[in-house]
Amino acid sequence: MGNSNSSHVQGKLSIIVDPSPTGFYIAGHNISGSVYAHSKTNISSNLNIGTYITGKERSRVRYQEMEYYHEDGERKSRSVTRYRYADRDILRLAIDLGNVSTASPGDSYRFPFRVQLPSNLPSSMRCEGGGGHCEITYKIKAELHGSGGTLFGNHKVERVINVESTPLPMQPVPNSVPPVTQRVNFLCCFNVGKITMGARVANTRIGQGETAVIDFACQNQSRRHIEKAEVTVKEDVTWSAGGRSNHFSRVIANEAFSPTDGWQELDKAEMKKQIVLSKDLTRDACQQNQLLEMIHAAINDGKNRALLGIPLTGLQSYQGLLIQVHHQLRIIVSTSGCCTGNPKIKLPIYIGTPTSHSPQTESQVQKPLPTAAAVPMSLAMPTVVPSAPPPEWANAVTAAPVVVGQSAAIVGGNSTWEAEDPNTMPHGNDTVVMAVAEIVPSLPNLLKEIEFSVSPLSTVTKWLGEEEWRARVFHVMTPSGYASVIKSVAIEFDQPEMGALVAPEVANFTHYYIIAALRVVADWIRTPLLSKVIPLCQDLTQNVDKIKAELSDWELVCTEQCFEQGSEDWGLVSPLLR
């Protein structure tokens, strides 16, 4: 809508947002500016200056549908292109700037504000593909409410603001991928040996513009030579509306590993020896254990390492109701010969705002604007700096600054609108405050709150601050309830933090809770989860073997130090707190 004015207006309403050094506004930090009102006529009625910061998920889905019709007495069909649109509110923050009771021609008013953005907001983004698109957008809006509002002409103005999510935590989330042995097949069904490989990712939470560190080890026990091994990051974006969806994917980064001696193929004699050895189960198991130990040592010595740069133009990972952005790291081993299978390793990674980002860092590299059509575009990039206020604002009467904290914001929820015609979407009804119903403390309600939240960790932290919720939900939580809370977190990277957040609030957090959680999470999450919750287990010394019985040999190796440290920590806890 902007700040333009037509020739018939009786005044002006304008928003000036103080520019950020980085060109975007980081969640959890302040955004400041002023709303200006300039009158060209007398006003004697009370006018309220209403200001709002809103955030939305928006999607447009293009799809094909068969349409049937009759022509010349025959029933025929044709493919018709249709569209579905959807909106979801993810932020609503009202700022009451005060009012104007009287005004004379030429009077100007300035209403300064400073607002703390909620810390759990997702970044602004946009993606296009398949004829549809999706976006997360934020706007700051100002309106005049009152009988004399129309005298100001453009009594409703707005500005788009680009938001970047809170920087990723400094604590890394490493992942040592268990060594996997995969058969190498020729013509899909003829076995020509096997390849065993493993990898370690130093941190599976990576910022845009940062470098992922991947260590790789591989032992070739096949008749096919390994030609190359490369690591890629694939970005998948899905958006939906009205039961329909569009999808877009691309590879945003790739890097090759250096060849090693273990890549060489076996000759015929070695292959025959390998076949004979595999029939001796005892010797084969012993050799396999030695191979696993070799792989484990190799991925921790840093000798075969790939440094994979994540581009600034990559989107950030996100799990919303209308939009989902997922990233997957893939290591693919390409073998010689045609029609030969290529073993691969897949694991999820999370891309977010770099840890180093800060609104005070003015020397940061600003994100470039992608120019390719139908390619995802990161919109968390420099905003055009607003021009200085026009001369008529120089003598404006300045009201007392209004400061609003993030506690006043309404974040997340399941309020969505869907339509076939975008003109029927309720864009003009943005001043309606999102309804907030009183929520009765219960586990089912907690799970539903997590499902519709923008940040499950922030949602649970909020309810942990309520005495009634602690007493009726968290304190009496069962092992299965604890596991369901962890599992309900859609972004797996946050599941270990959720486990550590809830565990201290459980009345008697024992090994039963840890075992229940291990049984519902993905394999790659089990080790990070254990490292978080083992120190909190109240009966670890007595029941450590029961927890270890749930783990694989690889997990036991990876968590050995964690169990030792956990037992020492629990031994230091006062018996009164056990």
Can you characterise this structure?
- With 578 residues, this protein is α+β, with helices and mostly antiparallel strands.
- It is built from 11 helices and 24 strands.
- Strands 4, 5, 7, 8, 9, 23 and 24 form a 7-stranded antiparallel beta sheet that branches.
- The N and C termini lie far apart (61 Å).
- 37% of the residues are buried.
- The model is unreliable at 1-9, 148-154, 359-366, 368-387, 431-435 and 569-578 (pLDDT under 50).
Offer a quick outline of the entry.
Helix content is 21%, strand content 37%. It is of the alpha+beta class and 578 residues long.
Principal-axis shape equals globular
Number of strands: 24
Tell me the structural class: alpha+beta
Terminal-residue CA separation = 61 Å
List the SSEs and their pairings.
Elements: E1 11-17, E2 25-26, E3 30-39, E4 47-71, E5 74-100, E6 108-116, E7 125-129, E8 132-145, E9 156-161, E10 163-164, E11 175-186, E12 190-201, E13 205-207, E14 211-222, E15 226-241, E16 244-256, H1 268-279, H2 281-298, E17 305-309, E18 318-319, E19 323-335, E20 344-352, E21 397-398, E22 402-404, E23 410-411, E24 416-419, H3 443-451, H4 456-464, H5 467-474, H6 479-487, H7 495-502, H8 511-518, H9 523-533, H10 540-548, H11 553-571
Helix pairs in contact: 3-4, 4-7, 6-7, 6-8, 7-9, 9-11, 10-11
